[in-house]
Amino acid sequence: MNSPEGLAHQVMRRIDRLAAISETPGVLTRRYLTDEHRRANELVSGWMAAAGMAAHQDAAGNIVGRYEAAQGTGPALLMGSHLDTVVNAGKFDGMLGVLCAIACVEALSGAGRRLSYPIVVIGFADEEGVRFGTTYLGSRAITGTLDAETFERADADGISFRQALSDFGLDAEDIGQAAHPGSDVKAFLELHIEQGPVLEALDLPAGIVTAINGQTRLSVAITGVAGHAGTVPMALRKDALAAAAEGVLAVETICAGGADVVGTVGILRTTPGAINVIPGDVSFTVDVRAREDGDRRDAVAAVIRAIRAGAEKRGTEAKVTVFHEATSAPCSPHMMDTIERAMISVGIEPTRMPSGAGHDAAAMSALCDVGMIFLRSDGGISHNPAERTTEEDVVAGIKIMLAVLDQLEG
Ligand code: HGY
Ligand code: MN
Ligand code: MN
Fold first, then answer.
1. Helix (H, G, I), strand (E, B) or coil at 58
2. Closest-CA residue to 192 (of 405, 323, 355)
3. What is the pTM assigned to this prediction?
4. Ligand 1 atom closest to Cα of residue 382
5. What's the pLDDT tens digit per position in 399-409?
6. Best mutation site among 83, 85, 91, 128 for ligand 1 pocket (most ligand atoms within 8 Å of CB)
7. Domain layout of the chain by residue ranges
8. Is domain 4-212+328-407 given the CATH code 3.40.630.10 in the classification?
9. Could you identify the atom of ligand 1 that is nearest to the CA of residue 82?
């Protein structure tokens, strides 16, 4: 059972058990501080305990397992990823990293081994930011970097983060108890699916992440005038959706022209939403990412100018709010080199690559050295039920992680 092959097979079965815990039957959606979050935490907590860890849920709703060192204590290696998902998600994004970290501890405890340092495995409670819009709430509680106004952010039902914590049985005032002092942390290691096509194109099972791209999230509200689709001449309209459409296309054009810049409009709502009514109000979101923070900020500024110009041209009004920004986060040279030596030691050709996707490691880089291992994504697909990584690649991932633990013994 404790071979990488046996552990990987168990990981794949556990992936399916976690995927069955969803707000929407048939597809996977598991948001922060919901009953499904609670059920996932309970399941993972049991697996942590079975692996020989002391598990608890922290003040932010992260599930945390600790495996003590051979002697005494000292700075711990933190490992893990997130347990929340996007809407209609794939089942590997986040969960794979948590389960592979637990598998590594299971390999140690199964062999009666303890290392010279403690290990802490974390299932972060909210990396995607689907419920409250702003990401890394679980990992920012661990790093102690949550700001006060975040607790007042409300979800689509108007429930604030503060209230949702209370409904979940937690208290925003206690959030500081989740923080890990930097002096107690050796490094943070995250295994995650690549969510892109690069490793598949290179025909490699795994990669070493060099940096996590920064991201900016905007909300846009366009206000026009609702009107009769049959009677208002085109020249007299204040069509909010036509203005928004120009803004959406500007996101595509501006970001396509940038250096390693990507831009996405993921949500667009139009009211009143009737076939024979000129839309009076439209809201949409914009997600801009880039390797370089300067390129991202330039793209965001150009997008905001274009949205405003498109709105003005039609006599409508645009309100643009930047509600989330995360700067790009470099992975530590020490951890990249450690992962590289580990890959070579298990016979896997190392390759280094940036991450276009955000990860808890970006937030954790405020606290400690971070390292990330990517595993190949079939077809590069992610944030989609077709998201998949093979059991063979999971075996490779577990072998690499175990080799990293040994490398860090030195
Ligand atoms: O959006 C992201 O990059 C990640 O999946 N949270
Ligand atoms: Mn994701
Ligand atoms: Mn993820």
1. coil
2. 355
3. 0.89
4. 5
5. 999 999 999 99
6. 128
7. 4-212+328-407, 214-326
8. yes
9. 6
